[in-house]
Write the structure tokens for this entry.
Amino acid sequence: MEQQKLPNVTLAIVLGVISFFCCCFAGLPGAIIAGIALLLVNKDAKKYTLNPELYSNYSQLKTAKIIAIIGIVLGVLYFIYTYYTISQMGGWDGYMEKVQEIMEQYGIEE
């Protein structure tokens, strides 16, 4: 019998890598994308445990899981950092005041 590849492994790896880049946007988009990748990995892991002899790319599945977990951790850490930074500026209003000051300093209008 010819072995197949697990269907969602490649997509999970791609989503995990994309989540690294999305961590720059306050962390949550990256964590959400990595969470989706982790769900796909878990779905394929269940398929593999039912019939391990049918599938050949289990090592890629483990790699995708590690990438997804790292993406979630980075996203959450960056979100916590962003929240802390904004709270140190006096909350959202204080943050917007700082942004307004910088825009006025450089002559940028809304």
Observations:
- The mean pLDDT is 90.
- The two ends are 65 Å apart (CA to CA).
